C-alpha cells in the first residue's frame, strides 16, 4: 500500500512529496519504506526574456510591425506540434500589416533558423527555442524540425535559378 503525503513550505515555495510503502519481510516482520521527493515552485527558477529587445538586438526585426508579426505567430502556434498555420496574406490581415512586412519577417525568421516551412502556409517554430511539453516531446519535435529543414533545403537546391539581369533560367 502506498501513501502520498504533500507538505509545503510556503516561505520558499518548496513542496516535499513523500511516498510510503508498507512491506512484509520473509521473516514476517512488517516495515515501511518512505521516499521523499523535493519539488521547487516559483518564478525564481525561470528565465525571463524580453523577446522584442532580443530580436531587435539581433537585427532580426527593424520595427514594431515586424514584432507584431513575430508575436502573432508565436501566440497562434499549435502547442502540440509547434506549428503555425497561416498564409502570409492571412497573417497580414490578422495582424493589420502589409503582406510585404509579413513576407520580410518570415524570411528573416527562416534565415535565423527560428522557423522552417513545412508546406505553403504551414511553419514550424524551432522546438529548442519554444515548446510546451517535456523533454521527450522536445526531442521528437526537434527531429521533425530538422527533417523539415532538410526537405526545404533539398527543394531549394532542385529549383532552377533565374538570372536577375536577363531573366534566363539557369540549369
Account of the protein in words:
The chain is an alpha+beta fold and 171 residues long. 37% of the residues lie in helices and 27% in strands. The chain contains 5 helices and 8 strands; from the N terminus they run E-E-E-H-H-E-H-H-E-E-H-E-E. The protein has helices spanning 51-57, 64-75, 88-95, 99-111, 135-158; strands at 2-9, 14-24, 30-40, 83-85, 115-119, 122-125, 161-162, 169-170. A hairpin with a 2-residue loop joins strand 5 (115-119) and strand 6 (122-125). The N and C termini lie far apart (72 Å).
Label this structure with key terms.
single chain, 171 residues, alpha+beta
Q: TL;DR of this structure?
A:
By secondary structure, the chain is of the alpha+beta class. It is built from five helices and eight strands. The protein has helices spanning 51-57, 64-75, 88-95, 99-111, 135-158; strands at residues 2-9, 14-24, 30-40, 83-85, 115-119, 122-125, 161-162, 169-170.
Amino acid at each position: 500500500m502506498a501513501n502520498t503525503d504533500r507538505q509545503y513550505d510556503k516561505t520558499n515555495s518548496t513542496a516535499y512529496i513523500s511516498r510510503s510503502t508498507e512491506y512484509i519481510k520473509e521473516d514476517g516482520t512488517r516495515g515501511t519504506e518512505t521516499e521523499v521527493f523535493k519539488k521547487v515552485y516559483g518564478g525564481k527558477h525561470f528565465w525571463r526574456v524580453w523577446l522584442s529587445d532580443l530580436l531587435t538586438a539581433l537585427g532580426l526585426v527593424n520595427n514594431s510591425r515586424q514584432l507584431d508579426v513575430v508575436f502573432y505567430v508565436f501566440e497562434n502556434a499549435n502547442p502540440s506540434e509547434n506549428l503555425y498555420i497561416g498564409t502570409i496574406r492571412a497573417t497580414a490581415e490578422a495582424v493589420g500589416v502589409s503582406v510585404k512586412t509579413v513576407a520580410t519577417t518570415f524570411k528573416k525568421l527562416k534565415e535565423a533558423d527560428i522557423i522552417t516551412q513545412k508546406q505553403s502556409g504551414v511553419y514550424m517554430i524551432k522546438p529548442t527555442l519554444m515548446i510546451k511539453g517535456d523533454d521527450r516531446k522536445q526531442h521528437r519535435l526537434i527531429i521533425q524540425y530538422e527533417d523539415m529543414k532538410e526537405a526545404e533545403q533539398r527543394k531549394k537546391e532542385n529549383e532552377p535559378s533565374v538570372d536577375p539581369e536577363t531573366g534566363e533560367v539557369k540549369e
